[in-house]
Amino acid sequence: TFPVKLWLLVNSPCVQSVRWDAHGEGVFIDQGLFEQELLDVGPAAAGEEELFKTRNFSSIIRQLNLYGFYKVLVSPSGSAVGSGPRPDTAGDDAGYTRGPLHHFWNPLFRYDRPDLLIKIKRLTKANREKLDAGLNVTSR
């Protein structure tokens, strides 16, 4: 699923475009580097299979939103600002230079809690209705 792919990316030493914030409670995504590193690479490059079915970064953002990730605003200096759930988690994570820096947070996506990944569900209309009614939502 998408959260598992994101977990693998953020923990991979080979991927530079996605990394944990200072507290391991959110992820930073360098859009330009992400597009270059993961979306522009075709299956023929380096003999690798495509990780995502899209080459459009806005589709990645949509997937993050569908899986309950919230965007935390990031100032030009790289620190998180605004009314996001964890505004102080950015710390000294201003090392990106290739594109816009995005900071996403999900209460179930944490560095120290891989066991919570199975609880991240895709927020379809039907799933939202079940959650609102207090029912259990199963993954696809």
From TrEMBL:
Source superkingdom: Eukaryota
Keywords: DNA-binding, Nucleus
One Pfam family, short name: HSF_DNA-bind
GO function terms (MF aspect): DNA-binding transcription factor activity; sequence-specific DNA binding
SMART domains for the chain: HSF
Subcellular compartments: Nucleus
Domain HSF-type DNA-binding: 1-123
Similarity comment: family membership: Belongs to the HSF family.
Protein name: HSF5 protein
Source species: Aegithalos caudatus (Long-tailed tit)
Lineage: Eukaryota, Metazoa, Chordata, Craniata, Vertebrata
Gene from which the chain derives: Hsf5
